[in-house]
Amino acid sequence: MIPRPDCLDNLMKVVRSIGPTVIVVGEVEANHNSPSFLNRFIETLFFYGTFFDCFEDCMERGSPCRTTIEGVYFGEGIRNIVAAEGEDRFTRNVKLEVWRAFFASFSMMEEELSESAWYQANLILKQLAQGSSCDLQKDGKGLIIGWKGTPIHSQSIWKFLSRNTEGDRVGDTSNGDNVYQKLTAMQIMKLAGERFIQFSSNKFININNLLHPYGSALLDLSPEDNQDVELVQILLAAAEKVSDQQYDRARKFLSQCQPLASNTGNPVQRVVSYFAQALGERIDRETGKLMPRISAQTDELNNICIESRFHVSFVALHQEVPFTQVVHFTGIQAILECVATKPKVHLIDFLIRTGVQWASLIQAAAAERKDTPIEHMKITSYRISR
C-alpha cells in the first residue's frame, strides 16, 4: 500500500479504532522503492539473490515447491518491481527505519523484543540444519533476520500510546581439497557488481550495494563461478542500458544472458533468468510492444488464485527455510506475553496465507496457560486490495 498513502492512512485509523493490545509487524528488510531505476534494480537483484542462495542450501533443486515459489511468487515480485512503473508498480518494500517514522506519526511506540523472544529465535536456529547460515541482529528495539550477512526480514512490536485519541497523524569457505574458492550466489553477485562499477558510465549508482566484502582478492575462481560472475555483469549492463533508454543495446545484452541463465540451474542462473525476463518486459512496455495492462480487478483475482493454489509450497517454505520460522515464532512469543492473562483473544492477520503460524500459537498457548486457559480465540483475516 506504499504507493497509495491515503489507503494506508485509512487502514491505520481502522487498526487504531480496534484498540489492539499489541501489533506485530513482520516486513521485508529491503528498499525496493528507489526513484532511480538502476539503483532499484541492483537492490532488488541482490535481495532476491539472497533468497535463491538460501533455497539452494535448504531445498532440493528439483523440488516442485521451490519451483513454484521461485517462478510464481518471487517471479511476480521481480517482474513488478523491474518492469512496471507508476500505479502498476505496487511492490514497493521499504526498510524498518521508514516504518518507524510512519508508525511514530500515528502515536505508536515500539516495544522491546523480550529475552524470551530472543531465546526462542536462537533456539529455532540451533534446531534447523541450515540455521547457522541465518543471523539475528538487534536493531534498536527490533530484530533483523539475515541470511549469510544480508538482511532479509525485520520484526518489530508496537503499541498505541493512547486508545482514546483519534487515529490521525501527529506528524562459503574452501576446504583445501579444491584449488578454487567456491563462492556463494551472494558473493558472486557482489563481485560482479564490483567489477561492473569499474566500467559503468553511471555516476549515481549506490556503490555500497555493490562492494564485495573481500574486494578483488577473490580472483581465483572456478570456471562455473567465472561464468556466473560474467552473467551477472551482463545483466547489470543490460539494466544500465535500460536506465539510459538505450533499448536496442539492452536487448543485445539480454540475448547474451539467455543461453547462460536458467530457471532450473544454480541460484545465480535462476535469479538472472527471472530478472532478464522482467527487463525484457520493461523494454516492451517502454517501446509500446506490450499488450494493454490487465485491469486491477483481474490482477487482484489472479493474485488470490495464485495464493490459494500454492498453499503446499508456502507450508514447505515455512518448514524448510530457517528465517521464516524465526519471524513467526518471535511474533508468536510477543503475542503470548501480551495476552498472558486475557480470557479472550482476537487475532487479526493482514497476510494470513496458509495460517500455519497460528497453529503454532494455539499449541503454545495450550501448553503455557494450563492454569488460566484462553476461553475464546478468534482469528480474522483481512485482504487489503491494491
Task: Describe the fold and architecture.
The protein has 386 residues and is an alpha+beta fold. 52% of the residues lie in helices and 12% in strands. It has 13 helices and seven strands. Strands 1, 2, 3, 4 and 5 form a five-stranded antiparallel sheet that branches. Strands 6-7 form a two-stranded parallel ribbon. Helix 2 (37-58) packs antiparallel against helix 3 (64-83) and helix 2 (37-58) packs antiparallel against helix 6 (185-199). The longest helix is centred in the N-terminal third of the chain and has 22 residues, at 37-58. The protein is globular.
**Distance between the first and last residues' Cα:** 6 Å
Q: Percent range for helical residues?
A: 40-55%
- The averaged pLDDT comes out at 83
| Poorly predicted segments | 172-179, 207-218, 294-298
Class of secondary structure makeup: alpha+beta
Number of strands: 7
Shape: globular
How big is the Rg?
A: 22 Å
Region (SAW): 83-159
Pfam families: GRAS (PF03514)
Keywords: Transcription, Transcription regulation
Family: Belongs to the GRAS family.
